[in-house]
UniProtKB/TrEMBL annotation:
Residue span, Uroporphyrinogen decarboxylase (URO-D) domain: 6-338
UniProt keyword RNA-binding present: no
Name of the featured protein: Methylcobamide--CoM methyltransferase
InterPro entries tied to this protein: Methanogen_methyltrans, UROD/MetE-like_sf, Uroporphyrinogen_deCOase
GO biological process, one term: methylation
Organism name: Selenomonas ruminantium
Molecular function via GO: methyltransferase activity; uroporphyrinogen decarboxylase activity
Entry keyword set: Methyltransferase, Transferase
Signal peptide residue numbers: none
SUPFAM superfamilies hit by this protein: UROD/MetE-like
NCBIfam families the record matches: PRK06252.1
Organism ancestry: Bacteria, Bacillati, Bacillota, Negativicutes, Selenomonadales
Pfam family, one: URO-D
UniProt-listed Gene3D superfamilies: 3.20.20.210
Amino acid sequence: MNELSPKERLDRVLAGKTVDRPPVICPGGMMNSATTDVMDECGLFFPEVHKSAADMARLSTAVQQRTGFENFGIPYCMTVEAEILGSEIDFGNHDCEPKIAKEYYAHSADVIQRDPKELVKEGRIAAIAEAGFAISRQQPDIPVIGSLTGPVSTAASIVDPMVFLKELRKDKENAHRVLDYVTDFLIEYARVLVDSGFSVITIADPTATGEILGPKMFGDYAVPYLNKLLDAIHAMDTKAIVHICGRLDAVKKPLSAIRGDAISTDAMVNLLDIKEVRDGGVVMGNVSTFALQLQTPDVIQQVTERLVNNKIDIISPACGLSTKTPVQNIAAMTGTVKYS
């Protein structure tokens, strides 16, 4: 097989085709790869970079060059959607990504619906799209991945999450109404990214775990709204990766119904089990982010080699990287995939 470009390799894997080796990526969003090592080196820092298209493009390029990840991944947090939908955001500092400071609504019934096509004109979406457009033109052989916050997590970022999770049982009508609304918004957000040159969309839905929802509510809420979003992305002729946090033993059966082109998991999950549950579907992961932050490069090499030897389709960090992760540890991971 001729040498594949990173974009060709990822495209082929997501389509279930043969490749020379796994891609090694970090999609952005919850799986932010902009570490303090890279920021210090290139002179671009959180939180200012979150709102600047030019700075995002420059920082993403520096991340890709220094870490060896075979993609560009933006944005660098999970608050873009919540900010537009009204929640208060703490933009953090040099060492910390933005987080939700206060959800806008107390109850699902309080949520006021606005036109999703108008919502995507607000907040940081235009800057993210502009950054992706610039990178995709400058580096057409490297995929630009756009990261979305999944429907359940987005809903729980605008309605008090403890209340919202209770209302999944006690006020199903309004819970479904909110989920339908945020999913329509996420579809329009994805459309902006795809139109701007993003070649793959990743959806991270950390609130939609088996441990939080349980198998029934995972099947009733997480699966249908993820699939609504995934079907819309596929209609845009674009592939999509879904990341689900936590242990997945309780939700293996409904997990098999998620129509993502790849499933990404946390470090404690056996990806070969997930691959079997999904009838050989593409799996992604799952190098421990604790190891990446705290262990030595030789340990990272061993962990990564194990995944490669197990024929995991896409190698990536398991979940959110700490901004304090040493860049040499990330390079040990990416180098092991590329050169072992």
